Every structure is written in structure tokens, then in C-alpha cells.
Amino acid sequence: MENYEQSKIGSKAHTVLHCIDLSSPDIHQSVSLLKQACLDCGFFYVINHGISQEFMDEVFTQSKRFFNLPLNEKIKVLRNEKHRGYTPLHDELLDPDTQVHGDYKEGYYIGVEVPEGDPESEKPFYGPNVWPAPDILPGWRETMDRFHQEALEVAKVVARIIALALDLNADFFDKPEILGEPIATLRLLHYEGQTSDPSKGIYGAGAHSDFGLITLLATDEVLGLQICKDKDAKPQIWEYVPPLKGAFIVNLGDMLERWSNCVFKSTLHRVLGNGRERYSIAYFVEPSHDCVVECLPTCKSEKNPPKFPPVKYGSYLSQRYKDTHADLSIYKK
């Protein structure tokens, strides 16, 4: 199954993405398809990834249970300085040049669970998670903990194929300082049914590229995600990514673009609301805090020297979150 195409609905342009079967024994074909996808648009589907449809449905059901709670319950688990917990409507502003308000979505961050008292919990993005009370949402934490762990395993499989596509050893990203001790963040998302209007600066999620290595995205059946394959085009051309049941949509982040010296590029994407409620589940996969990201040896030469200086990942990510999220002090008013 090399690509997936859905016919145009009305005047909405849909893109065609490569589809990579993670259960395929033909690793050469998988590497070839992924490389083509990364050079083409930085987005692709993965199927047969090992997470059952039954469990995916349960994660979506539990997500809806949380977002259906009254606001006064959700605010009890408001996002903290470690980026754990609930993010209200408009909390995130991804494209300040065109957005009149923040994103018309609410979310919930769940990161790597590190208990208080552990020295690692002092680092940004590490620490204990914030959880709804079990009497309010029984079984919720257990479902999300399990999904966090299973999604990381999927991400590691994808990262091995990416490594081979960049002419690296398959286990390059498995090192302790990269995905051995990652900053891996699960984010539940709910778009309430707002109709977006780009001419008025109203978006479900403003145009942006993701910060890190890769993102896995599971969506419901509601159309909304758009990508722009050429961010420098005037005017920009936006195409819908059709939902594919049971698949993850995978996209490359800015850090992989930097690591690969722009061989692989991150891609602008956004969400337009069409008046229907929409749920999605994003899983952001980042290297460890102490990982120094510098040009990969296979991506530089005398004719193509490194385009970016080395950067320590934890510092870079903290700044990116600070740039795109509301100051927490506004919620104390």
C-alpha cells in the first residue's frame, strides 16, 4: 500500500501521502517510501503499527470524557510550568502574524512520568503528571499511561526507518541521549465546532511546524488538518490530509530539519474548523534535555557545510513553548 488518495469533496483540495506498513518485512521498500515522503512533504501515514484499533477507540473515548467535563472541573488540572495538564481555548497562539485570537482548541498535556524528589524531575518537561481525580474519571490515567508507552514504541520504529533513510545506523536515534531518555509528550486535543475563517484570522490551529523530531497524530473522521508543502510559495497552497482510520499521520519536526541540514524538512500545517467537533491525539517525540543537536555526519560535505550551529535540546524546546503559550499568570486573574 504505497499511497492513499481521497477524491476531492466539493472544492477542497486533498493531498496524497505515502503509507508505510510497519509490519512489512521489506525494510528496503519502507525506507524508500519514507525517504520519498520526507523529500516530498514531510508527512506520511503509518499503518499496522501495533496499537490495536480497540485500544485507540478507548483512548478517544477517554479523551472525550475529559473534554465533556464542565470547565470548573477542567480548570482544576490547569497546565503547570512543566506543561502538564489542561490548556483552555486560546491558550496557544501558533501564528501571531495572522491569528486574531489563539487557537480554537483545548488540550491536555501528558509527559514522561518522573516522581517528585527524583533529580530528573528538576528538568523542564520532566516531573509528575497532572491527573483528573479517579472518582471523576475512573481508569483515565491508566489508559493514558499505557498509550504514552505504546506510542513511544511506534515512534522508535519510525525513527529507525528515518535513520536508514539518512544513511545512518538503524539504531542511531535509540541512543540514551536521544530516544533512550526522550522528552515525549502526549497531547489530547478537542476542537469545539468553530468554523474557521482565514480571512478574519480565525483558525482551529494556526499555521506552524512542530518543534522536535517527529510527531504521531491520530485523528477522528472529521476533516480539518491541512499542510502547505512549499511555505515560501506566494500565495501558499493548502491541502487537506484525509483521515485514515487506524493509521497515524506522521510529520517531521524542525529539529530533524536542523539535524539533517535541511535534507529532510519540517512542513507547515494548520487546522481549519468546519463547524463540526473534532478530536485528535498528538504524540510529540523529542530528544533528551542534554542532547546536543548538530549536523548529522551523513548530511554534510565540503560543498554542503552545516547550516546551523549545535544546540542543546532542552533549552531550545523551553524557548519554543514559551513563544507559543499564554503566560500562566493570566489564569490567576
From TrEMBL:
Q: Which InterPro entries match?
A: DIOX_N, IPNS-like_FE2OG_OXY, IPNS-like_sf, Oxoglu/Fe-dep_dioxygenase_dom
- Matches recorded under PANTHER family: 2-OXOGLUTARATE (2OG) AND FE(II)-DEPENDENT OXYGENASE SUPERFAMILY PROTEIN, OXIDOREDUCTASE, 2OG-FE II OXYGENASE FAMILY PROTEIN
Give the matching Pfam families.
Answer: 2OG-FeII_Oxy, DIOX_N
Identify this protein by name.
Answer: Fe2OG dioxygenase domain-containing protein
What family is this protein classified in?
Belongs to the iron/ascorbate-dependent oxidoreductase family.
Where in this chain does the record put each Fe2OG dioxygenase domain?
Answer: 182-287
The protein's organism comes out as Citrus sinensis (Sweet orange)
Is the keyword Metal-binding assigned to this protein?
yes
Q: Which UniProt keywords apply?
A: Iron, Metal-binding, Oxidoreductase
Highest taxon in the source lineage? Eukaryota
For this protein, the record's SUPFAM superfamilies field holds: Clavaminate synthase-like
Instruction: Please verify whether the record's keywords include Oxidoreductase.
Output: yes
What are the GO MF terms of this UniProt record? Answer: dioxygenase activity; metal ion binding
